[in-house]
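Onboarding guide, step 5: your first structure request.
Type a short instruction followed by the sequence, for example:

Predict the 3D structure of this protein.
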Amino acid sequence: MASVALQLYTLRDFLKTENDIESTLEKVAQIGYKAVEVAGLGPIESQKLRSILDKNGLKCISMHIGCNDLENDIEAVFAKMDILGIKVAAIGALPKEGRSAEGYALYIPKLIAWADMFKARGYRLAYHNHRFEFEKYNGVLAMDLLANKVPNLYFELDLYWVTAGGGDPVAWIEKFQGRINEIHFKDCTVREDVAIMAEVGEGNLNWPAIINTCKKTGIEWCVVEQDRCERSPIDCVATSFANLKKMGLC
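The system replies with structure tokens like these:
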């Protein structure tokens, strides 16, 4: 059965200093979260971050990285993963120069090499989608290009962006079965004809179907994320946790 984690990028405005990180992670644990994904933190030594997580009973399940991290010092990425005790790192997005037919042709060989290196070292490289990966090039979705051309690449599906790209979250979870360890749970509502990110359970995504599919396909982690919050982000992640608890996931 899938477990619930929090993507810390949601709370990035409260994670700028070491003291911020310590006090905010304490609040995260108090809400009830037992696990987090690392992204959006200010400067902090990996060992210090690990000690704060351990102190609050929080497991680190993965972290976000950029292609520049892989290009500049992939060994530093592996070292940080070892300190945090994780096996999965997810590319947050391709750089802007990679978001075209020519861009994918440029980055796919790099992704193949990085994903192969991760696998050889006992790690998994994942890719976190936004909406732009649902554009077609010569009749093929960029998401399919990545999946078909980079066999050792895993995926971290962001369900809000899947929906924004015109995709069906359930269908994409099923399609990538075996290549997904974790999924970003992010809801979508509409106000004055504008799509708005919402707390899980407060929008229009079909969460019973999504959760049932996660269970059937062996998804390990359901990761709450909300890039943009209309009220206190702490309150937002607390609402998402409470709603998921009502749905039987927490």
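Each response can be followed by summary notes, for example: The mean pLDDT is 97.
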